[in-house]
Design brief:
This protein has 108 residues and is mainly alpha-helical. The longest helix is centred in the last third of the chain and has 14 residues. It has six helices and no strands.
Length: 108
């Protein structure tokens, strides 16, 4: 067993996970949020809300959204969740594929 430095505790990622947090992660993985929020869907939202990339990015706390959405790396999960909430609030009656069950973790 390795001795740890005094005053420092080694924290593993799984130390904070609970059954509920794992279920939530699984729910978002099933929804495929990072794949859903691609450039085309973000453009649709910007157009519908009459916002620029910069304005929408500021609204969800993502700097340079236009640059980040063009890269191959997906948006952060927190940004995808916020975009889904905004879509559900303002666009659900106008778009064919809104994410309706963003907070339904029970999967009935």
């Amino acid at each position: 067993m390795k001795a740890q430095k005094k005053g420092k505790t080694k924290k593993r990622k799984s130390d904070d996970e609970t059954t509920a947090s794992v279920l939530i992660k699984c729910h978002y993985a099933r929804l495929g949020l990072p794949k859903i929020w691609d450039k085309k869907r973000v453009e649709r939202m910007c157009s519908f809300l009459r916002m620029t990339y910069a304005e929408l990015g500021t609204l969800i706390g993502v700097d340079n959204l236009d640059l980040k959405i063009n890269k191959t790396k997906p948006l952060p999960m927190s940004a995808c969740i916020l975009l889904s909430v905004i879509e559900g609030q303002f666009m659900q009656n106008w778009v064919p594929d809104p994410i309706k069950n963003i907070f339904d973790f029970t999967e009935k």
